Amino acid sequence: MHDLMAHFITPAAERIWESAGSVITEEGEISLEPKDDEGWSEVIFGAQVIIESSYSLKRSDRSLGREDWVAFSSLLEPIGRQALQAAEAKNSEALFQIGADLYQACVACHNVYMKK
Amino acid sequence: MKNLIIQVTSIIFLYFYSSIVLSHHAFTAEFDANAPINITGKVLKVEWINPHAWVHVEVEDQGKSTIWMVEGGTPNTLIRNGITKDSIKPGTVIVVRGYQSKGKLCLPRCIANGRDVTFPDGRKVFMGSSGTGAPRDGADPRERR
Prior knowledge:
The complex is a heterodimer. In chain A, 72% of the residues lie in helices and 7% in strands. Chain A has one domain. Chain A has helices at 2-17, 37-57, 60-63, 67-74, 76-88, 92-113, and strands spanning 22-25, 28-31. Chain A is mainly alpha-helical. In chain A, helix 2 runs antiparallel to helix 5 (76-88) and helix 4 (67-74) packs antiparallel against helix 6 (92-113). Chain B has one domain (23-130): CATH 2.40.50.140. In chain B, strands 1-2-3-5-4 form a five-stranded mixed beta barrel. In chain B, strand 2 and strand 3 form a beta hairpin. Chain B starts with a helix and ends in a 19-residue tail after the last strand. The model of chain B is unreliable at 8-22 (pLDDT under 50). The A-B interface holds A 6-8, 10-14, 17-18, 20-26, 29, 32, 45, 48-49, 52, 96-97, 99-100, 102-103, 106-107, 110-111, 114-116 and B 4, 7-8, 11-12, 15-16, 18, 20, 22-24, 26-28, 44-51, 74-76, 85, 89-91, 129, 131-133.
């Protein structure tokens, strides 16, 4: 599970998180929105991985019959689809909100299953 | 579908060789509950980004300047608590209470998890995230429920 998270799901989530928001200094505010098609392709790919992750996490050898695990994992699919749609529309503002929703989905599961 | 499988396989391969920094993590994975900090300094930079906003604070002490990167909650959480991009503008002098990272070399910068921030008008606001495993130190109003 650690490898799946560290090498697959987290990097995909980071592609979504890092595609929105801004950095503010005394010189002004810089948007983190991708600047070119290559950058948007990265976000699209991240969204696709999140969608696939939903299925992957629900595999029987991972869910082990736990209904809440399946429910938590299921949260990722609609969020991934929303991210995919926003990325294809190059809508960074929408991705900012979707990124927050993605984090809440992560935390909901981690609060139960991630060792603190 | 075939293309997607190839893409997914490729990215697993690529990331296997990448250094990975976890954006989201449990408190205890990164921060030291036995190393509380209380710093006062000027905001240099704000990274308004999910899953954690970061506030860079310049602390002056006896002529020496130290920059702290303070991790906060999600931007949405901060907004709900009354912290906006406008209220934490660069140049604002703030007081931050929190916990230092387990790594304490401060190279290139000191890193901390922020619990609450006090603004120049005296307003003290929770700046962390609930449910991360941070110490129950009274900073998070949800803990009192």
